[in-house]
Specification:
Distance between the termini: 9 Å
Low-confidence stretches: 410-415
Oligomer: single chain
Radius of gyration: 21 Å
Number of helices: 14
CATH architecture of the largest domain: 3-Layer(aba) Sandwich
CATH class of the largest domain: Alpha Beta
Strand content: 5-15%
Strand order of the largest sheet: 3-2-1-4-5-6-7
Number of strands: 13
Order of helices and strands: EHEHEHHEHEHHEEEHEEHEHEHEHHH
Helix content: 40-55%
Length: 420
């Protein structure tokens, strides 16, 4: 039996896909400890994990990317938020390691300081990534703007010229703060942002082809396992059984980014269509929406029972909600507002699993048309679902952790506090 310590950023959208992986490890006999959002500690304890909150200094730093006026500005704002948290989550994980004396550590890809602390610790560790990896490759477009994959010489030239411009801006914002944390832990500074993803011994990547772009140069440390779909146990609403029309689910971000206007547009767009709209706002309040007869709006509802009846999901382009729909073969209309959502929305379109609509062009008429088109793309959504299933999910993730980390550690590593 091994002692597993998991550390998340303050985002439920990162904790929830990690949970079934921890469930699988626990079922294999391993002892699980979790550091996560204070609001989710009791939920994790209910699954049989030893749980405690992350530092309040980490949790109080909220992302401000939704205030930016461009995708590049939004990405830069996200980087500033992660760097600000890194100063505190590094020390937070070091304290957790001292307390728990784990045999293996799993760290959220957005907890940059904690990743450095795990590396400095010296024991076996991995990171998990629930959004598109921003790894450079000549085979895919530069990460961020949501460009389509290159076609022909002109497309490859576009990528070659844009890649240093797109990533250069992010690296200028990211590397000084991130390297200050690393040098404070006596770790070598990063020269490129890619090293954040290439340095961990194992990256559990929570997606799979054909949703992710095919490429031949994935680093050996990256293991794609597909989305690990999980949500807190809860009863579906009683009114769900009274709905006869096909259902359209509308989702917004679990970490605030001012995307509530997507709900307003969807309610107006579909008010007279032969569907029933169910919208959720996990990071905000339902508000004063004018509800047509064919709609419900709530802060939280379990998505699983809704998607089981859905003909389309209108998402903000969040990887979690988008992949949750596609994993059930439900096509998606993605309306990205920022963060990684431009990349997610483009993958929906390229996989022919749905449609995309820029938030800047969002209107009820345009959204109605995009939803209608998406509902004809069930075949593409089912192809993606088959790819996700073949990747193995939580079982494949746990197997990679055991085979690549635990079984490879015959003796304690330098700085590894405990393997007993």
């Amino acid at each position: 039996m091994a002692r597993v310590l998991a550390y998340t950023s303050p985002a439920r959208g990162h904790l929830f896909p990690l949970t079934p992986i921890l469930d699988e490890l626990r079922q294999r006999g391993h002892e699980i400890s979790v550091r996560t959002l204070a609001s989710q500690v009791s939920l994790m304890e209910g699954r049989g994990f030893a749980a405690a909150p992350i530092s309040t200094q980490v949790e109080r730093i909220s992302l401000q990317d939704w205030r930016a006026r461009s995708p590049q500005g939004a990405l830069a704002a996200s980087v500033r938020g992660f760097c600000a948290r890194a100063e505190y989550d590094a020390a937070d994980l070091r304290d957790a390691i001292s307390d728990e004396k784990p045999d293996v550590v799993l760290v959220d890809i957005n907890a940059w300081g904690a990743m450095a602390a795990a590396e400095q610790w010296g024991g076996p560790w991995a990171t998990f990534c629930p959004y598109p990896l921003a790894l450079r490759s000549p085979e895919v477009p530069p990460f961020g703007p949501g460009l389509p994959p290159a076609a022909g010489v002109l497309g490859r030239t576009r990528d070659r010229l844009l890649r240093p411009l797109v990533m250069g801006t992010i690296e200028k914002k990211m590397l000084p703060s991130l390297n200050a944390v690393r040098t404070g832990l006596d770790l070598p500074a990063f020269r490129h942002a890619d090293e954040l993803f290439r340095r961990p011994p194992l990256v559990i990547y929570l997606t799979a082809e054909p949703f992710e772009y095919h490429r031949n140069d994935w680093p050996d440390n990256v293991v794609m396992v597909g989305p690990c779909d999980w949500e807190p146990p809860s009863e579906p609403p009683s009114w769900l059984n009274d709905i006869d029309e096909p259902l359209v689910l509308v989702t917004t971000s679990s970490e605030f980014q001012d995307d509530g206007r997507l709900v307003k547009a969807a309610l107006e767009a579909l008010a007279h269509e032969p569907v029933h709209v169910v919208a959720t706002l996990p990071s905000g309040e339902p508000g004063d929406y004018t509800l047509p007869r064919n709609a419900h709006v709530a802060r939280f509802l379990p998505h699983g029972p809704l998607l089981d009846r859905a003909v389309c999901a209108v998402t903000h382009g969040g990887m979690g909600s988008t992949q949750k729909a596609l994993a059930r073969g439900v096509p998606v209309c993605a309306v990205p507002f920022g963060r990684d959502q431009l990349e997610v929305a483009r993958r929906v379109q390229v996989a022919a699993a749905g449609t995309r609509l820029s938030a800047g062009w969002l209107s009820p008429d345009r959204l109605r048309s995009k939803v209608a088109d998406a509902m004809t793309m069930t075949a593409g959504a089912r192809r993606v679902a088959a790819g996700f299933e073949a990747a193995g999910g939580p079982v494949a993730a746990a197997a990679a952790i055991v085979s690549r980390l635990l079984e490879q550690t015959a003796t304690p590593s330098a700085g590894h506090p405990s393997t007993t």
